[in-house]
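Lab notebook page, bench 4
Experiment: in silico fold of construct C2
Operator: M.H.
Input chain length: 266 residues
Purpose: comparison with the prior construct
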Amino acid sequence: KGYAEIDPDQEYSKLCRFIETVASNGVVTDFSVHARIAVLQKSFSPADNRKIPPLKYELVHRLVNDYPELTFSLNGGIDSLSMAQQQFDDCPNLKGVMIGRGWAADPWSFAMADNLLYRDFSYSPKNRLEVLKQFGEHADAEEMAGDPTKIRRFIVKAVNPLFAGEHNAKRYRIALDEIAGRPKKLQAEGKSLESEPPISELILGAALEHLSEEVLLRSPEESYERTIIEEEERTGGRSLSVSEWQERRKTEEKASAYAQSLEAPH
């Protein structure tokens, strides 16, 4: 039975029965609901389930209104701060919105989250240059406490997508990749990291070399306005940042699998 043949009323009725069953003993009161139904058929791959069944935010909104004694968070297809805000505007009693790929692909686009969603103006970063400087202090402390040959790649990965969608962002990421691999390279050559600059200087240097002053100093407000314009111009589908992030992730997974196959005993 194909997805298009599922009766909407029957679909919501089954969803309600599930919610009522789980909540019946009073222990579970908080639900995270994906707005896209999963089709459990052999002909449907996980990738198909992420794309083919339509997102039905209205069903989650109905749950919120029909079960006021429970709390609901919505998941599925939300890639930006404005999309999250729209869900709260459409359903004020919605407890939360889950965002995965959108945040992972372009974290800076969520710099206004506290201001816009929670009306909290107690702190907001001035720009990404400030973020990198503060992150550099954290990165230096992590390397002092651990082994750079084991942890540097994880440290660097955190600021890899900070300039998603910006001019020369790819050159910045390439520079970060070289920085990430530096400790192991020196170790293989029998050399020490002692004469190397701290990781904070290396990361900041990569940003200053490859990114413009306008990009580095752009405020969260200015960045958010640019994001809104890009969303209005986009005709559909996921954002370019998310699409590029997904492609990079596939490439990294293939490279990791290949490296592991070389290391495995034969």
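Observations: DSSP finds 13 helices and three strands in the chain. The beta strands are 30-34, 71-75, 96-97.
Next step: discuss at group meeting.
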